[in-house]
Design goal:
alpha/beta; Gfo/Idh/MocA-like_OxRdtase_C (chains A, B, C, D); EC 1.1.1.18 (chains A, B, C, D); 15 strands; 339 residues; 2 domains; Rossmann fold; 10 helices; Dihydrodipicolinate Reductase, domain 2; six-stranded parallel β-sheet; Gfo/Idh/MocA-like_OxRdtase_N (chains A, B, C, D); NAD (chains A, B, C, D); seven-stranded mixed β-sheet; homotetramer
Chain lengths: 339, 339, 339, 339
């Protein structure tokens, strides 16, 4: 598929994230266009399609994927719908960019791993977009340069202004810490072997019954520790910070600010309020990278296996949250396709 | 020109800057494509054109602008060639993105202003790309919000690792400080009324005979001062910093860094080495903004008048550098087109 | 003892810390003088005494404390010698500034608590000098102001360039983390109820057999968590950092730097190499505060109880380090004297 | 005067600064005591003396200096009274710490220089306390190390929350910029050869008629430039910042902050409101250094010549402020005593 004409993409799901990807492909990304959108809500699909030249609306993913002008699929529907959409895409042998989580639990994620293995080649890039964030990319490059020696610990902070109404205590692990799970695996190049979730007294700012904040300790097969503060009702801003502590030094990202003011006895800057603001460039780069590799007939980026591993770790994390104590992570054997 | 098909652009000049714009339009920018490139060096034009699908190579700007698939012109040739290219574009009534300087001196810049006025509508966006840099944009928005009160002073730092071999003492003003001239006018909304260039002992790191660094004081018709340290052989990095001192506080940009390390008794981060690294996003946004407004049939952004005003101020600055002391800036009356 | 003449102090122990206190009282602190020094090594005591006008040398603490010109005692001998020196001081009813640890284990610390109770008034200020550090003092004041809401978590970093040859894995807890144990209790106003020590793979920079770094999680009776990275062979500097995460915001100390350089592609500053450099002002203020309150006949600052509580927590920490898992902390009932 | 008993000091002037020095010597500084205070306001002198053990009150400086227990003099009276007090101290051959300015103008300062020369040895340390500030000391040490190469420019910021009612436009130069005049001479080791004072439109926050802010450019005999923003009604805090731009890098002081908070969408810290807060340690160290050298019979620190040079530069600055344009500085020949 080394082609001149733009890549035709079917976007499955037109909620906040799906609609944002449609906008991105239509306006920001070069070399691709949205040829189909899919949503169970037919009206919403029609509205989104109407704004894009040459785009059709569907309620059934299979119908969209069968269309002649669909060369690739971007899955942005809710997690429980991912498995079916992925398997349909495999039937058409279409490349897929699948928003995280790959699927909601480790068992279903492993089924997708097995199905992709049966195809015999990688078709899925999972939406762990921190791997495309300029700061994470610099941190990863620094760690790989060996300048700081071997990483020993990773301290992570993940803070949101407020959680949406449907958010549960387990979702702090499976929805939020999932990013740090992948970032830990990717930055350190280790698998995670055990998870402990600690529960300080909830903040008065958290909705009743929500265990927020939580403090998560991940142990890796390389002997490193990665701790994560997750605090989804911190009230003051959206912050993602990471500090890698290595044998000869540390490196920290997430403090970067571009405008500093001095007034009224205080100096400082503003804090992003939202992931869409903080990671705008990473989302653009992620989709652009996928469009470019897809047009060259390649699949790179976070794999189905990465999605499965995150699901398995989060599942252990939720057990630690609910039952207390340390929970070991058990992973299936890694298929050759992902080595 | 409210159109679905991509905007066809002729790029005049295929040196470092021109070739970079060709790459940007081809790969980064959506909604536009390069349909023609022009260079006096026919071989270089051919090489660049060969890398872009459906792009023709020319040695004569007029021939390129006459082509049916050319809807707009991006001028990235050396400054002395700009006037002729602009006037040719005016003959075809084509929208133009013209790299700074508009032209090399105030007299020729004023001729372009007059020619555009004769057309009766704006056709030119000048390449003052700092107006598209995320940090400058935030600083401008903060100043306009009135939170800090009226701006009284602007302190600017502009540092390059090393100057190219052909760089002269006047080029520190007309090529480098030109950016701060426009930034001062744009951020403060004032015209510049006088320039004083001070010459400390040159650095041992500067080539023989080059007056580097220089310290420039700009006075404005709003009673503000803007000082500029220009140091093009600072040796250690590329830095562009600005601090606006206002009645109720100050705001500073250019210290922002995204990765901080602690090792070997030192903490800190790296410094960009180059404008292409520091302002990559601003160039992308600048060209994208131009493509988008052009497709809607509009012209926004820095105008021909802005290019002329910068030329006039720099000309006064070069006189202050050469003759010493304060030199008043004389501007023609501002035509209604630019109000 | 509301007096004009300087306070006469016997300094017990003339090693690095004791000699530094002698210098401080002699040269920095107003209102006090060193009238006696004590060391098992008679020669070292003589040498130190010779440098101070009117100072006598002793090998027996009891003899020094019996001297007419000794009004107060500063204990800076090794931890195992503290209990005897404290009990002797109690016999003479002398005010004591006792370097941390109060004593090496919880049982002996509790005996000192009981002896002071028997006296019926506080006589001991324990050398937890972070309570006098300007940054900690500001953090404490901010937390008490209520601006940030209730503290939920405290993230601590404690890094040394290299550990001395005699340092053992348990000493990372009992000697180093002891500071964070007290800082956690003091900043949050909570008692610590459980300790978990995690052991990542040791750094290649740590001496053979030393478990360095360690990661310690403290749970408090106020439902807060306090995590401590202790890394005594980090190689790059001495760093003490703390971030309090509260219901409405966070506050961080320990990043403060006073000289920032930009050169050779890097920006940043230097990192202190040593606690004596980082906390010089805190030590001065600590001793001055003690001299001043002593002259007014008062005892304030960290109490014997604070020393005991730290000993008990560290003892639990060492057990967690050695046996793995979470170890609950059991404290005796708090005597009325310390309420 | 290599002595054990504390140095007896007469403090001339008991206003805010004098009273603060009395407190400092009494409570902070070791090795010295206040034996006499002098003030034209007899009642104020009595009140201050009453708070210090063994201290007498005077209205005549000569009477105080004649007292047997006065070994040294600290002059903190208003500037116009300095010359007479200094000459009286010279008659008694007493060491003097004289608050800046040495005297209010260059002619009187030169008379003091000549009188000290006639004595044949240095007796005066001028109160340029920035030379004792930890940050300035580190900057000076870095410049002298040669790491950054030769200094080319010095950018200074000097901001006060609000000016006192009696402050005039010239006092921004002679009272405030005087510190940067000395700092420039001391940091660079150059004499200042010309001064230009620029006057942007005054801030709405400045009292009617006060030219605030001002922007001052100092030229040195080493070919360096030093620019100073002086803004005494900035409203938001007390800030003293300096950036030395050298051949191989830059170094900046004055951004140092020890407590950073994140809350309500903003990160940052507080700004000192006052020189007494910002430079407390420098004042302590200054007086301690003077006490220590005085007791050893030495005179070090800023000399009478430094005081004279500052007076001459400020006088030129005030002329530039009033008459506009660049004013050359004329210095007398430097006597051998100060070389």
């Amino acid at each position: 598929m080394n082609r001149q004409e733009p890549l035709g993409i079917a976007v499955i799901g037109t909620g906040r994230m799906g609609a944002d990807h449609v906008r991105r492909i239509d306006r920001v990304i070069s070399g691709a266009r949205v040829t189909a959108v899919v949503d169970l809500d037919a009206e919403r699909a029609e509205t989104v399609a109407a704004g894009v030249d040459g785009c059709t609306a569907h309620t059934d993913p299979a119908a969209a994927m069968a269309a002649a002008d669909v060369d690739a699929v971007l899955i942005a529907s809710p997690g429980p719908a991912h498995e079916a959409a992925l398997l349909t895409a495999f039937e058409h042998d279409l490349p897929v960019l699948c928003e995280k989580p790959l699927t909601p639990d480790a068992a279903s994620a492993l089924r997708v791993v097995e199905a992709e293995q049966a195809l015999g080649h990688r078709r899925v890039q999972v939406g762990f977009m921190r791997r495309y964030d300029a700061e994470y990319v610099r941190l990863k490059a620094l760690l790989e340069s060996g300048q700081l020696g071997r990483p020993l610990m990773l301290h992570n902070r993940h803070r949101n202004v407020a959680s949406p109404p449907f958010f549960t205590s387990s979702m702090l692990i499976s929805d939020s810490v999932a990013h740090e799970v992948d970032a830990t695996r990717w930055l350190l190049g280790h698998e995670i072997t055990a998870v402990t979730v600690l529960r300080p007294t909830p903040s008065a700012g958290a909705p009743d019954g929500l265990r927020d904040p939580q403090f998560v300790v991940l142990e890796t097969d390389g002997g490193a520790l990665s701790d994560v503060e997750i605090f989804v009702n911190c009230g003051f801003g959206y912050q993602v910070q990471a500090e890698a502590v290595c044998e000869r030094g540390t490196a920290r990202i997430g403090d970067g600010h571009d405008l500093v003011t001095h007034m009224a006895g205080r100096w400082g800057g503003t804090i992003a309020q939202d992931w869409a603001e903080r990671f705008a460039q990473a989302y653009d780069d992620e989709v652009q990278a996928w469009v470019d590799t897809t047009r060259r007939g390649e699949v790179t980026g976070p794999s189905t296996w990465d999605g499965y591993a995150a699901a398995a770790v989060c599942e252990a994390g939720v057990r630690s949250l609910e039952e207390g104590g340390r929970v070991a992570v058990e992973l299936a054997e890694k298929p050759p396709l992902y080595r």
